[in-house]
Amino acid sequence: MRKNIEISEQQLGGFLEQFYDYFESGYDFEEFLKVYLEKIGLDEVVVTQRSGDGGIDLKAIRYGVGGLAGADSVEYFVQAKRNRPGTTIPIEKVRALRGVMPSGSKGVFITTAGYSNKTIEFVEEDLTRPIILIDGKTLVESCIDNEIGFVFTPVFSKCAMNALRDTSDDMPIEDEVTEEQEVPVVIVDKRITANDIRAKILRMQKHSLMF
Q1: Of 145, 178, 187, 194, whose CB is crowded by the most CB atoms within 10 A?
Q2: 3-state SS, residue 89
Q3: CATH entry, 9-145, from 2.30.30.140, 3.40.1350.10, 3.40.50.1860, 3.40.605.10
């Protein structure tokens, strides 16, 4: 798992748009969430909407003590909405989720959109039937942290290398670069021409005449 990745709000917004556009339908989004929920630690994740299970899109279980089924396990009922970023989920959708949650279960509402303050307040009013709200930006950040659908290019860091050295080492450290100044290594494809070769030979000949 990658941690402490600095991403600006502008970058995060761009990632969210790409993430939203990737899914051709709400069904595709639900199938992705099955894998996502499994990767973040839930078990027995199933997609249920196509079976008409009361508006619940996915179900999952988190095993309790010792990972044993039935021993302090918790059922999760998940509602998924692939709505356009920048829009908000109507509070009625979240209220409907709570209405079909059995006692002792937890709800999760996951969307590529957002939630209004009124919806957040509604969720916090009844902690006996908790609902976790995951908006688009939170979902993308979670995918980045867990390396789900996002890849990273390694960057050489002098700071990281310097941290490995003994602090008692008196050898000077040149050109110390902060994390904010780090830049990726760029490989330039330069073709060597006949003129380059002739110039190199002339330099070698001139150098040999000096000794």
Answers
A1: 145
A2: strand
A3: 3.40.1350.10
